[in-house]
């Protein structure tokens, strides 16, 4: 009887412990699944020499899938280079260092192929596994970049003394901040008939289009600019203003564009241009940024022109005064 009681007690204890473990597993699984942040457990992949070259997804919570836009049920067992083929090496190297050293890593990094920024924290679980908890911070990072760009632009415009230098500086700041492939500034001719583009900024491999261009050669583009509205095209192949013949746009590496007008006395007299070689959706925040840049650039250009005009007037006055003094001296003698 005692043996039976002892065995029964042991069995009940084991069953209770199993139930408690299961309850804990269910608790942690529920917490894992309901995190609003993405959470990944990864396992490093090593080459024959023991160097980490990749890592595989071991566990992925549902929130992770919402961040890169990938079904989380499809990635377990696959490597990160298989899931995102062109992912930057830093997404492997930093997690490899976490596993090797045990030092927790905090990061803010972009995945270029999906144009998103992520912020997170990686930590070692064992000799080959690590955990990462992270969230998407694209809007915050890009907003900070735009604010910083405006501050930099203000500083540069104060120091520059020629229109050409101002437009080149603004174009480079805008192009790099927005990740565009071309940016520039041009003066509008007539009733938005043509634009004379100043020397522009271009990404590597993209040709300059500085010079004169007729709007009608590229589509039905003049209406928005005439009304003082931004000309915004997300895809030249599908936009009704250019889709009938997108060839001229594509020939000069334009897949998407923004022309932000500058107005004077009710007329569009200039435009700040931004191009992307690929189609892209221009956000409201990006358009507000470009409006701010165009306004600041126009103020800076107006200041330089006023200074140049004043210098001409001063020279003319000095010349006339010299002539007057010469005449007076001639009469006096």
From TrEMBL:
InterPro entries to which the protein is assigned, alphabetical: GAF, GAF-like_dom_sf, PAS-like_dom_sf
All residue ranges annotated as the GAF domain in the record: 162-311
Listed Pfam families: GAF
Gene3D superfamilies: 3.30.450.40, PAS domain
Protein name as catalogued: GAF domain-containing protein
Spans through the membrane: none
């Amino acid at each position: 009887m005692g043996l039976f009681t002892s065995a029964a007690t042991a069995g009940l204890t084991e069953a209770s412990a199993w139930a408690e473990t299961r309850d804990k597993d269910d608790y942690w699984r529920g917490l894992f699944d309901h995190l609003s942040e993405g959470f990944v457990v990864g396992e490093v992949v090593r080459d024959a020499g023991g160097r980490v070259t990749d890592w595989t997804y071991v566990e992925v919570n549902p929130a992770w899938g919402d961040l890169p836009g990938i079904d989380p049920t499809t990635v377990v067992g696959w490597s990160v280079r298989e899931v995102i083929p062109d992912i930057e090496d830093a997404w492997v190297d930093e997690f490899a260092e976490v596993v090797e050293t045990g030092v927790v890593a905090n990061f803010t990094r972009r995945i270029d192929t999906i144009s998103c920024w992520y912020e997170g924290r990686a930590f070692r679980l064992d000799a080959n596994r690590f955990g990462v908890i992270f969230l998407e911070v694209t809007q915050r990072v890009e907003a900070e970049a735009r604010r910083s760009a405006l501050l930099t632009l203000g500083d540069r415009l104060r120091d520059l003394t020629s229109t050409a230098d101002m437009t080149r500086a603004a174009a480079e700041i805008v192009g790099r901040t927005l990740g565009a492939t071309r940016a520039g500034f041009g003066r509008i001719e007539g009733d938005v008939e043509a634009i004379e583009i100043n020397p522009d900024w271009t990404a590597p491999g993209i040709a300059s289009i500085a010079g004169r261009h007729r709007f009608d050669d590229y589509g039905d583009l003049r209406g928005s600019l005439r009304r003082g509205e931004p000309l915004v095209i997300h895809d030249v192949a599908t936009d009704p203003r250019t889709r009938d013949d997108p060839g001229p746009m594509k020939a000069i590496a334009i897949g998407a564009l923004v022309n932000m007008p500058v107005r004077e006395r009710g007329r569009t007299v200039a435009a700040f241009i931004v191009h992307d070689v690929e189609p892209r959706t221009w956000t409201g925040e990006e358009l507000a940024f470009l409006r701010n840049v165009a306004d600041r650039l126009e103020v800076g250009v107006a200041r330089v022109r006023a200074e140049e005009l004043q210098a001409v007037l001063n020279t003319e006055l000095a010349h006339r005064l010299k002539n007057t003094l010469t005449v007076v001296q001639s009469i006096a003698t």
